[in-house]
Amino acid sequence: xxxxxxxxxxxxxxxxxxxxxxxxxxxxxxxxxxxxxxxxxxxxxxxxxxxxxxxxxxxxxxxxxxxxxxxxxxxxxxxxxx
Length: 82
Prior knowledge:
By secondary structure, the chain is α+β, with helices and mostly antiparallel strands. The protein has helices spanning 13-20, 46-49, 53-58, and strands at 2-7, 25-30, 33-38, 42-45, 60-63, 67-72, 76-81. Strand 6 and strand 7 form a beta hairpin. The longest helix is centred in the N-terminal third of the chain and has 8 residues, at 13-20. It is globular, with a radius of gyration of 11 Å.
């Protein structure tokens, strides 16, 4: 399973909301983090979140052991299974 962790603060809420729009993605919580998970890849479009670059590039708290960040640029964040 692919899992992305994002700190649950107001600035990062749009990241979790956009991720949750994908029916293959589940957004839950673990402690103070959003746990965004999927069986396949997780892809989040930056423009859809409305996040400014500083928030966008600092939103990642971590990924699960079986996941890797394949893309994190001005366009999108893509997390895939290893």
